[in-house]
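Notes from hallway chat w/ T.B., transcribed later so I don't forget. T.B. wanted the structure written out for a chain they're using in a teaching module, and asked if we could keep both sequence and structure tokens in one place. Agreed to drop them here.
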Amino acid sequence: MKEIALHIMDLVQNSIAAGATRVEVSVTRDSAAGRLTVEVADDGRGMPPHLADRAVDPFVTTRTTRRVGLGLPLLAESARQSGGSLVIDSVEGRGTRVTATFGLTHIDRPPLGDMASTLACLLAANPGLEVEYRHRCDGREFVLTASDVRQALDDMDGGAPGGPLVFRSVHGLVSEGLLAACGEDGSQLS
């Protein structure tokens, strides 16, 4: 995947497939430490220890439609190539937390990418999913929740629970929030 936002999309889709009703996504840029950290945590089924330990192996998957799973292995490789790492913490029956760290200025770190569109797609396509997104930039923070989006739509007088209105609303909220907190508009973040 060419950008980290697409890895985040894949991780959240994995969470949904694992029965998650709540997903927390955080992105933290720490310039002083030279690190970009991405974390996705859910309340899905979780994984047994033997599967969590092998989840970055492309030939280990719980899918029945194909024998390979490339999302986590590709994310792990992207993190390693930039001087970072990937940690999977999963408890069967309670959920999974995936933490990827990247060298912030490393030449091989992929760009963060279009977080505004990523979040807009996720929330528009999954209106019942409780999502909390935190984006920290050197001590400043932007937070958006699915509840914030529902409230904004209610204030706009009755937006539908999914679809184009949600996409436009979320895209605008994320772009404005990231501009205020990080000086970036949410699309094609570096």
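Follow-up for T.B.: The longest strand covers residues 22-30. Might be a good example for the class.
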